[in-house]
Structure formats: C-alpha cells, structure tokens
Amino acid sequence: MSAPNPQRLLNLAGKSLLTVEALSISALEHLPIELFPPLFMEAFCGRRRKTLKALVQAWPFVRLPLGGLMQTPHLGTLQAVLDGLDVLLAQKDQPRRCKLHVLDLRNTGQDFWRMWSGSSVQVSSSFSMAPGAEDRLRTEQPLAPFEVFIELHLKERSVDGFLTYLMRWVEERKASIHLCCKKLRIISFSMDNVMKVLSMVQLDCIQELHVNCTWHLSTLAMFAPLLGQMSNLQRLLISHIHMPDPEEREEEHVVKITSQFLRLHCLRNLHLESPFYLEGCLDQMLRCLMTPLDNLEITHCLLTDSDLTHLSQSPNISHLRGLDLSGVTMTYSSSELLPALLEKIASTLQELYLEQCGIRDSHLEAILPALSHCIQLTCFSLCGNLLSMAIMEKLLQHTSGLPSLSQELYPVPQESFSSDRILQHGRLAQCQTELLEILKDLGRPRTIWINFTPCPHCGDNTFRRPEPIIYGGNSLA
Predict the structure, then answer these.
(1) pTM
(2) Residue in 241, 179, 178, 182 with CA at minimum distance from that of residue 206
(3) Which CA distances in Å does 2 have to 120, 126, 353?
(4) CB atoms within 10 A of CB 379
(5) Which strand ranges, in their side-by-side order, compose the sheet holding 102-104?
(6) Which of 189, 339, 353, 429 could form a disulfide with 370 if both were Cys (CB 3.0 to 4.6 A apart)?
C-alpha cells in the first residue's frame, strides 16, 4: 500500500477545519504554516468571509497574492480581506505570526497557489516560505506603509463596485496605505476622474502607462505634471489625442508635455500614435529625453525634414532595438534622411516597421545600403507601400546576408495591379512565381510574406490574409 500524499493530507486537513468555521479561526494561532494557503483557498472558494478575515490577520507570508485566485473581481472577498487588514492596521504591534505587508490584487501569484495546492512540481518548504530581498526589507521596516498592488484599467462606465470600494477604502487610510500600480491604462476617461484616482496612487510605482483618450491637446498638457511624477516609468504609449482648436495655444501645450520627459530617467520604450503636435518640433521632445531608448514608435503623423534630421542626430536613439515609423509619409522627404537614420542605429536594430509611408522605388533604393548593415534585424515590414518587382528583387538581394532576419512582410508588387489600380490575380500569381525564383537564385532558405493590406496610394480596398512565399524546399504557398 502506497504512502499517503502529504499535500493531499494537508488539503484534507484544511477542508476538515472549515467544517466548523469557529474552530478553524481559533486554531490559526497554532496552525502549521503549510496549512494557511490551502485553507485560504478553501475559504475563498466557499466564500467564508469570517475565516478569510481571520486568515489575513495571521497570514505568515509577506505577500498575499489574492488577485491570482480571482478570475473576475469579487467584492465580498475583497471586503473580507480588507476587514482583516483594518484589524491589523489598528493594532500597535503586529501579531507574532503575521508577516503580511503586501496585498497583491493583480492577476499574478498563480504559481504560489498551485504549489501549495499540490497541482505543480513541489518546491521545498524552506524555499517557498523564504522572503525575497524586497520582502526581507519590509519585514525589517515594520512601520513602513502597507502596500496594495493593482493594475488599473480606467475606462468610462467600467469602474465597477470592486474598484470603487477599494478606492474609498484607500482614500480613508492614505496615511497607512500605499496603492501601487505598475501598469496603468487610461481609455476614454475624463480628466476629473483621472485626477481623483491618481491622487490615491503612488505615481513613482508606475512602470507602464497607456493613454488612449480622445483628449484635446490642452487636456494632455493638464495631465503632463502627473506624467512627470512617474519617475520609474519605463514604457509610455499615447494615442488618439484630438487636433487642437484654432484658439488653442498649441506651442505652449507642447512645451508643457515634452518638458516632463526631463523627469523620466527610466524611460526605455516610447510609443506615440498620431502625435500631430510634434510636427516641426520633434527636437523639443528629443532634447528632453534623459536616457537612450530601446524602442521608438512615432506613427500616423507628419514629420518635417527637420524632424527626421533631429531624429537621426539624437544621441538617445543610437541604440534602438525597435523603430516604427508606419504612417509617417516619406513621399516628399529628402532621400538622404531615412538612410542616415538607419545607419545611426544599424548595429542594434532588430525590428523595423515602415508601413504605409508612401515609399516608392527611389526611396527604397536609397535605404538599401544602410538596411544591409542592420545585421541584428529580425523583423522588417514594408506593407502598404507601392513597389515594383525590380526594386523588390534588389531588396531581397540586399537583405539576403542578414543572418537573423526571419519575419519579412512586403506589399503586393505594383505589377499585380491594372492601370485602374485593381488587383489582378493572374498577375499576382506570376509575381509570386518570380519572387520564388529570386529566392532560389539567392540560395538561402527563406520565407517572405506578401501582405494584402490596401495601399493608400493605389485605391484598392481588397483585404486578404498575407500569403507566404517559401524557399526551403520547392514550395510556393
């Protein structure tokens, strides 16, 4: 007869304790640490609020990853846990067994619960209970404010009772609670509500910010001082800001916004969609960058030759790993500017997106030498531009020596269209065959994708899934 599974015995012990809730609460003082997580899970699933409240007051770990148990926010569970925290916060001296200093409401911590429920590979109890360096610091500083971690997704008409209750609870205890949010998304949320919510958040905890709002430029300028307080911000995405009203003082607003970058010493990834306000003054923002960027996206806007010149000369873009200028029209730009930019970042660039930029044969031919120097390039997209078979052959030749290039997305050759800019499927098939022959002649196994995203310059509105042209055997898909 095989020996009983220790983890199974723990789970059974937890369930038996919960059969009499009063007994389980009174037993917590002497309960083995190993029983706390399975007992908490059982109480959570059974919505036993009194037991949850008592478990919080005796929790023997620094962190309680509650969010990892909640697929959807549950107000009753939150209330029980916060009631337990209120008891702890009201005590001068924390109970001997209780180590709790962090309530984590993010969708993390599943490994912790799986380990204690026995549904994953076992880890020694000494390892699983040992606090990390950050947690040890907290235990050595018991007077430090209690931390609550949450991911905030602020969207009009989506602020539910869970978030409302939490915010009210934090607001009433601001002196003893730090509300920490590493990822903040603001989607169509009024500025008044943003200010109210963020007044309760430790802004220097935010590492990733996504602002996708139909704000006016003046509203973004009003938000800018909050942005400047996010001193540990690593990734910033701003999109869908409205064009200014004629009476708006656009230049003044741009200065208010870009000057806040002087305070963002950890920023590594910058994504700006439709930043019309940077046309002709991109240098203002570039001068305020305090650290080299890893990834830069400036998309769907107009940039002047002066903007592109300043971009290529900025010291903080010289080590870019990703560059996306999709939707930035290059049709009338000087043919020397984009090659100069690519040469500047050739040694580090891994991803390059130049989709729907109005690039024609002459523009592409000008950047081919610089492109061939991008030896770390793994992904390159030119979708939505109008290119001939002749320049695509040159492109394939210049990029054939790039050892890491594995994702190549190119537009349908212009020879595939009629004079009325209508896609001709027979011509397309012929172009595909010719492209395969080019790949064969180059002699390296390779897959390129022909993307049917409509070109804004050719008037064809046909959408089709991208198709691969594969040379590795003898297949044309």
Answers:
(1) 0.86
(2) 182
(3) 20, 26, 60
(4) 15
(5) 63-64, 102-104, 146-149, 177-180
(6) 339
**Distance between CA atoms of residues 334 and 304, nearest Å:** 10
Rama region for 329: left / alpha / beta (φ>0; ψ in -120 to 50; rest): beta
Write the CB contacts of 93 (distance below 8 Å, at least 6 apart in sequence). Answer: none
Q: What is the DSSP string of 212-250?
A: E----HHHHHHHHHHHHT-TT--EEEEE-PPPPPTTS-H
Buried b (16+ CB within 10 A) or exposed e, 175-202: eebbbbbeebbbeebebeebeebbebbb
DSSP state of 329: -
Distances, alpha carbon 381 to alpha carbons 272, 352, 449, in Å = 19, 7, 9
% of the chain surpassing 90 pLDDT = 60
Which of the 8 DSSP states describes residue 61? S
Strand stretches in 14-69, DSSP E:
63-64
| Rounded CA separation 195/221 (Å) | 13
Q: Which two tokens stand for residue 371?
A: 């492109």
Give the contacts of 156 (CB within 8 A, at least 6 positions apart): 187, 188, 189, 190, 193
Greatest extent of the chain over all pairs of C-alpha atoms, in Å: 85
d(C-alpha 222, C-alpha 147), whole Å: 28
Length of the chain in terms of residues written: 477
158: which strand partners? none
Tokens coding 445: 């196994």
Residue 270's DSSP bridge partners are 236, 296
Per the CB < 8 A criterion, the answer to whether 250 and 278 are in contact is no
Report how far apart, in Å, the C-alpha atoms of 323 and of each of 79, 240, 266, 296 are.
46, 20, 19, 5
> Both tokens of residue 413?
């050759």
The pLDDT tens digits of the residues spanning 408-465 come to 999 999 999 988 888 898 999 999 999 999 999 999 899 999 987 655 545 444 446 7
Q: Distances in Å between the alpha carbon of 12 and those of 112, 119, 410?
A: 19, 15, 60
Closest listed residue to residue 203, CA positions, set 168, 179, 239, 174: 179
How many Cα atoms sit within 13 Å of 202 on the Cβ side? 19
Q: What's the CA gap between 198 and 184, in Å, rounded?
A: 10
